[in-house]
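Workshop exercise sheet. Pairs work together: one partner reads the sequence aloud, the other fills in the structure field after running the prediction. Swap roles for the next sheet.
Pair: D.N. / O.F.
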Amino acid sequence: MALDKNQIAQRIAQELEHNTYVNLGIGIPTLVANYIPKGIDIEFQSENGVLGMGPFPFEGDEDPDMINAGKQTITTMDGAALFDSATSFAMIRGQHVQLTVLGAMEVSENGDIANWKIPGKMVKGMGGAMDLVASADNIIVAMMHTNRAGESKILKQCTLPITGVNCVKKIVTNLAVLEVTKKGFKLLERAPGVSVEEIKNATEANLIIEGEVTEMNISK
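Structure field:
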C-alpha cells in the first residue's frame, strides 16, 4: 500500500548521516525530526534562525515563541542556538548545510524542482527554497507521487515555475524511492505492496528499472 506522510519521513530519516547539518523544509520534511535513527547525532537547521531543532512537542508542551519556518511549534535540543535570518542564510549560502529535505509540486528527470508557486494562486513569497537548492550538496525531495487528480508529479520536464535546476539527488514518494541519474529516474525501492507496474503507471517520466526492486523497509 502507499505510504502516508509519516512513513515517507521515516524512510527519509534512513538517509541521515552522523554529525551533519540538515535543513528540513516545510510540510512532510519537518516530520523527519521525529524519526532520527538511534546512534545518529544530527543538527537540524530551520531558515528562520534555529540550529538544533528537535521533534515536535507533545500536546500541552508547546511554546508559541519556538517555531520553525513553517510556523509550527517545535522543541530544541541541548545546546541549540537561535539567531536572525541574515545569520541563518549566511550558513546556508556558505554551504554549511550538508543535506536539505524539501517538499515539491514537481520534479523533472534531470533533477529540476518546482516547489514555490502555482500560477494564478496566492503565495506568501518564495521563501528560502532558492538559496537551499543552490547551496546544499545533497537534496532529497519528500512528496506525493501524484496530485489529487491522479496526475504524475514525477515528470520529464517541470511545467510549474522552477525553484532550482539539476539539483535534486533523490526522491521519496508515497509509492517509491527514486534516484536522479544522468539517464533519468532510477527506481531504487517500492512501497510495501506496491508493484513496479503501479509505479510506472503513476510516473510520466521514464523509469530506469534494473533487476529486482526491493520494498522499502519502514519501521512500525
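Discussion prompt: The two ends are 14 Å apart (CA to CA). What would you look at next?
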